[in-house]
Amino acid sequence: MTIKGKPFDIFPDLKAKFTSDQLATVKKQIATTELMSILLDRLSETEICSLKKVIPEKYFEIAIQETITALKVNIPIGTLYFSMYLVQKSFFEARKPVKNDMIDGQLFELYPEFRILTFDKKMKAVIGKFDKSLLDDNDSLLKL
């Protein structure tokens, strides 16, 4: 999908940030077999080195924010932020999702109907990205 330029169709605001020359350069870089090979190796767990060699993390952050903006209409905000957190950790820290991550993800589906109170540092890091008052509530919980 990336090679065929679909992300630029899905994220028109992102496309608007590029000049036509920059867009052509980005599409060319995305379409390289080197990047595709690294991504496929990473996804198949044969390559555990960080993708920072290929994709600077700041650009990945921009892509994550664009994804959140595009998908937040249809996906619960907590679930979306948590999923993006897992994607980022997988690609840049070679962190593999575990069973507990799936359980945590289910809890985020309950937000905002239910407030999530947790001692889990990972969950609190994600909560801090989309609801500062909920993070404050969680920090208050630790003081009890």
Structure characterization notes:
The structure is a single chain. The protein has 144 residues and is mostly helical. The chain has a domain at 53-142. 66% of the residues lie in helices and 0% in strands. The protein has helices at 6-10, 12-16, 20-30, 33-43, 57-71, 77-93, 99-108, 121-130, 132-142. Helix 5 (57-71) packs antiparallel against helix 6 and helix 6 (77-93) runs antiparallel to helix 7 (99-108). The radius of gyration is 17 Å and the shape is elongated.
Question: What keywords describe this structure?
Answer:
144 residues, mainly alpha, 0% strand, elongated, single chain
How would you sum up this structure in a few lines?
With 144 residues, this protein is mainly α. It is built from nine helices and no strands.
Classify the helix fraction into a percent range.
Answer: 55-70%
Largest sheet: none
Note poorly predicted spans: none
Shape: elongated
β-strand number: 0
> What oligomeric assembly is this protein in?
single chain
Beta-strand content: under 5%
Give the H and E element order.
HHHHHHHHH
Average pLDDT taken over every residue: 78
Secondary-structure class: mainly alpha
| Separate helix tally | 9
Report, as a whole number of angstroms, the end-to-end distance: 49 Å
Radius of gyration from CA coordinates: 17 Å
